[in-house]
Amino acid sequence: MIAVYLIAFPVHAFQVSSSSTGYVRVATASAISAYQVAQRAAFTGALASAMSAPTVASVAVRLATGPVGWGLLGVSAALTLASMYYSSQEVQAVKTAALAAAPPVGTQSNGSGTTLPAGAVWNPASCVHPCAFNAQQYFYVDSVGESSISCYQGNGGGTFTDPAWPGWTRNNQAISGPTCRRNWIHKNDGTTASSQQEIGFLSPSSLTLGQYQTYVGGLPATNANSIESKTSPVGQGGTAPSAENVTTIPVSPTEVVPTVKPASQVGPTDAVIDPNTPAPAGPQPAVPSTQTTTTTNPDGSVTKQEETTGSVSCSAGNHDQRTFGSVLQDHMNRWQGSGLLSALNVLKTLTWPTAIPTYSLSSSLFGSFTLDFSAWSGLLTALRSLIIALAAFVAYRIIFVGNA
Q: Strand 59-65 relative to strand 245-251: parallel, antiparallel, unpaired?
């Protein structure tokens, strides 16, 4: 157990949060968003499938490093870069919103029970029952193949009242095709009878997979239910949320282009791919510096002071800008709850014996014999020295080296 603590824990303790090179390779939010735009059908299709299923379940779509290209960058395959996640409650909320936004599929009259004729198309500009005063409801039915002569003869001389639709007027209109379009119009005159002649809609109880996909794909990125709002970075050290329906999409570095940046500039929307990326080649930008020169006379008085501004550059990459105190405190905070620290605390409670014990044992088979541990006193001293040395070495690694 002690060997595992001493070997495994120092390797992984600072894998994500610290960088031995000062640079990290990340997948930025803009790179992930660009891939989502290019592959939007995969994301919306996964969510639409969950919405159209009889049983509502959570769904996740994960972007992970694929087998091509990442090995050259020192990145392992199957590392999750980002995850789009909807809980079952969120899936139900999106489904409800999609149903509410869908056009009505069933219609009925508020009073007489008359339904729209087969093939009727509702005018989107028409009001939905109940209509305001002087507002109009309007629908039409096309008769494909009917000649214009037959169409206009059905008008009876122009707009007329249709006996099958009390309170509604109808006129026929020949359009190209040839097609005869019969238009029904009802105007609310403010009376109760007029209101009862309006058409009331029935909301749809279900949508097709394509309708769900169209709704989700049309949500703006700022909408709380959009796939962009439900996508978060994962990367090294992160854990993708578990879901009942999971789709994993392998990507290459050419599809989600990674970015190398200083470790101090990693943002909350960046997915860390490699926390120990080599520093970029070439000199880093010059940093202005100020130097003060003071000339002192033999008698101790100051007669001249000059300030010279120059620039410095580092050809070996960017240095870590953290102070020793902040590094020490960061390491102490991270090791405080580790299993290794608990094991080291046990060492503080060990009591090393001042006298070597001797045990006498009796056996009917082997007879009586004595175990004198003083014969192993040198080995016990060496073991104690080894444990103390290993503890000191680990403490040095914690404070000065980290995961380098």
A: parallel
